[in-house]
Amino acid sequence: MFSKILIANRGEIACRVIRTARRLGIKTVAVYSDADKNALHVEMADEAVHIGAAPSAQSYLLIDRIVDACKKTGAQAVHPGYGFLSEKREFQEALAAAGVAFIGPDAHAIQAMGDKIESKKLAKAAGVSTVPGYLGVIADDNEAVTIARDIGYPVMIKASAGGGGKGMRVAWNDEEAREGFRSAQNEARSSFADDRVFVEKYIQQPRHIEIQVLADGQGTALYLGERECSIQRRHQKVIEEAPSPFLDAATRKAMGEQAVALARAVDYKSAGTVEFIVDAERNFYFLEMNTRLQVEHPVTELITGLDLVELMIRVAAGEKLTLKQDDIKLHGWAIESRVYAEDPFRNFLPSTGRLTHYRPPSEDPHVRVDTGVYEGGEISMFYDPMIAKLCSWGSTRDAAIARMREALDQYYIRGVSHNIPFLASLMANQRFVEGRLTTNFIAEEYPDGFHASDLPPEDPAILIAVAAVIHRCLNDRDIQITGKLPANKVRVRDDWVVVLDGTQHPVHVHPVDGSPQRIGYTVDFEGKHRVVWSDWNLGEPLFRGTVNGEHVCVQVDRVGVGYRLSHSGSQALVKVLTPNAARLDALMPVKAPPDMSKFLLSPMPGLLVSVAVSEGQEVKAGEVLAVVEAMKMENILRAAQDGTVSKVHATPGSSLAVDQKILEFA
């Protein structure tokens, strides 16, 4: 076994590997860029080595810097995590040349599976079911059209070296095939320096289901069940679960055996994932093989009881697997939600900044949080905006969904925007609950983007009751202040008016006897009687308790004279007033928000790369106005309607805040 390993990665996956290494008694070395000097993975590791500037191309992607860090620290092996250098054949070869073990497959398997065209040829030769298509080099768009006609529309045009949705186009006719070929080729050339594309049959209403494999290179190769990864947005996974609600035992066995056959065909060693596309009749077709640990590996760990990182380390150290296929049993159900720093109400634009408050749910046998951030830390513009992977486990799928909904309610994040409201909406979506999933799920369920109306309908009685109790608790504390005159006795009133999003609800709040550790109140309104119990401490951001016996967790923020309450992904502004104050409040004029329709505002914090128009220029709807760069991605801002530019408020090179003015129209 190794005594010291280096993790060639950052963020939550680096922290994840460190936790297993600690349990095994292995020392760890972190590498970090300028932007990650104070990162959690650096703090957790036994040693840390600085490897370069903030951009990954100047740090985490530099093979020589990481090899040098191994030599300096005496690290005997490297775990690459996922992303960055995890599937770079050159990295594995450079480590081997330096006498450092790579905790992953060898260069041959990485290269064979890294090319989508060659991997499909290998899969077909190994007896793995593949999508009908043409895997040769396509000369031009005319040949692409001919091939598409032979296969039969619709077809998928893909870049051979592609990934993450880049270099992919669906074509339903000759014109779209011609245009899709050119676009996919151009995108592949710019993103991967490899413009080869191929054409295959587009499977309609598909599911994305992957098989986890594990092999030791000494004769043992296993499959560890499947993961359902169909909930995707722009080809990026959002929710993963294990097992799949769609597969039966026979299909699972057939997919697993084919995945193992492919692993054996390339003499695979370590953990890997074989991805399949599955149609409505449970016909499955090979998609690709990822020769690394997957982001979503925790759901497999939760239902098998295995630690995949530990097994990867042991295999890399030369140990033989002691498991047999019959030893692999699936217990219960697990779901993973990817928590990102992004604004779902602004078309999921990434959000950067400091985590002013960060409290993940408590971990237990039913909840797991893999994170690489902490309160006071920063979400950088240089890397993926993932905050954490939130996982839940239950004996059934319904139980796992219920646990996930509770955990999302308890996830308290402030300082940056986050996608928890969207995740909460997905968990409450009836189609998701029923397991009727395809890779088109999000596009079909949220065709116009995500809006507040997409959040699960919430019983306002819960928020009214909780707001009344919170306010009553604060008033009960206020009358206990010391130094009062003996005759000046104050009694807290029982009658209040809860103003929830502008609607008034008269309530009667009265304490009930309970233990010293719990608070209990009856809240009467609208002819109904509700009993609220909680162990909430004043000032805590999470109100946990029960309303008429039902467990609730409500996030509480003080806003002026009122509160902002968050529950099931939705937010509500609440004031609790005396009846007289409520009468006066109803007479207060409502200040209308300023009309900003005449301005082009920056939708995100970022760098203004260019302004394509000038003052006095007439523009047409759809015309490019400016380009803003954020998270190393260029975002093109277009005119929503015809108009004339009256003023330019920002110049190229400027750093922009969210909603900062860029242009003004007459």
From TrEMBL:
Signal peptide: none annotated. Its EC number is 6.4.1.3. Pfam families: Biotin_carb_C, Biotin_carb_N, Biotin_lipoyl, CPSase_L_D2, PCC_BT. The keyword Metal-binding applies. Residues 1-447 form the Biotin carboxylation domain. Residues 120-317 form the ATP-grasp domain. Pathway: Metabolic intermediate metabolism; propanoyl-CoA degradation; succinyl-CoA from propanoyl-CoA: step 1/3. This is propionyl-CoA carboxylase. It comes from Azospirillum isscasi. The lineage of its organism: Bacteria, Pseudomonadati, Pseudomonadota, Alphaproteobacteria, Rhodospirillales.
